[in-house]
Amino acid sequence: MFKTPTGEEVFVVDGHTHFWDGSPENQRNIHGKQFIECFYAYHTALSPKDKLWPLDKFSKYSAEQMYHDLFVDGPDDMAVVQSTYLTEFYKNGFNTIDRNAEIARKYKDRFIVNGAFDPRDGERALEYIHYMKETFGIKGVKLYTAEWKGESRGWKLTDPNAYRCFELCQKLGITNIHVHKGPTIIPLDKDAFDVHDVDHAATDFQGLNFIIEHCGLPRLDDFCWIAVQETNVYGGLAVALPFIHSRPRYFAEVISELLFWVGEDKILFGSDYAIWTPRWLVEKFWNFELPEDVKQEHGVDLTPQAKRKILGLNAARLYGVDVEAQKAKLKAEALAVAAE
Fold it and tell me: Record's Pfam families (predicted)?
């Protein structure tokens, strides 16, 4: 639970976290090394100096470390842990649903586990969606349209096989479709993260929510023009939010565009753990105020009510979390632990 300087408790759902293994032992080839080192470059470029990790810790951390960073030192009440397989680069996958389910079982009531699928697998993708729903009860997935598979270096949300997967997700109640549409990561191709296919898919699947992680950066304008017309398209702040430290003016411009076009009800907080830890992000976000000239130009403001929605209430709504019941449950569990 995050407490503001005035003592207000703010419910936080971290909408984009990872429990990955990018260690040398798990790297299949040079691309596994490139991928985790690129993540590390984002970490070192945008984090405060006192929040930096050594590369070996960053490449593979424990479940205990993650729990501590999110829920003990960190202000998160719940976290969505996303699955990203990248089996072309990693022997056992980068962070699979099985690995994510382990940490969720260990720390009950804290994690929402999301799955993943690759429509290029055809029938096997459909079978895997059924398996994830029946085994893990997922309500969402994370998709990586730039992921390599054999000779393919990406796919689009509008591919016929992707549509078959979306039809099944809609039927099974897997309604939250998180899609990485943002910065590229070596060796993946920037164009494979293009946002334009979101427009078609969101129009055709009104029963699904498309949470566009990283807000399409560096294609913010394209994302905003799509999200303003598609009521089921949301913006995830992972990667955008850390600029609040190193380039606050740039962050002010990004969040102002999002508030103007997308609105405070369709923006979600995500730390992108372990690239960044949530405490400093949430603290800086809560204390952040838009420059007066930016407010005047855009006609928006980042009010406390907008911050509450972005930090947790919007994600809670998408995932059907009863906030008051969840707060009561977590307090009861904390009291029980303290009494032991």
Answer: Amidohydro_2
Tokens of 292: 């007066």
Buried b (16+ CB within 10 A) or exposed e, 190-222: eebbbbebbbebbeebeebbbbbbbbbbebbeb
Kindly list the strands in the beta sheet with 111-113, ordered across the sheet, starting from the edge strand earlier in the chain: 13-17, 78-81, 111-113
User: Residue 208 carries which DSSP code?
Assistant: S
Dist. CA 19–CA 92, nearest whole Å: 13
Angle between helices 123-136 and 160-172 (to 10 degrees): 20
Torsion, Cα 61 277 182 39, to 10 degrees, reads: -40
Predicted TM-score (pTM) of the model is: 0.96
- 79: DSSP letter: E
Element (DSSP H or E) covering residue 236: strand 233-236
Structure-token match 């191709």, residue found: 189
Separation CA 335–CA 142 (nearest Å): 34
pLDDT tens digits, 115-171: 999 999 999 999 999 999 999 999 999 999 999 999 999 999 999 999 999 999 999
CA angle (29 as vertex; 26, 33 as ends), nearest 5: 70
pLDDT at 309: 98
CB 258 within 8 A of CB 236: no
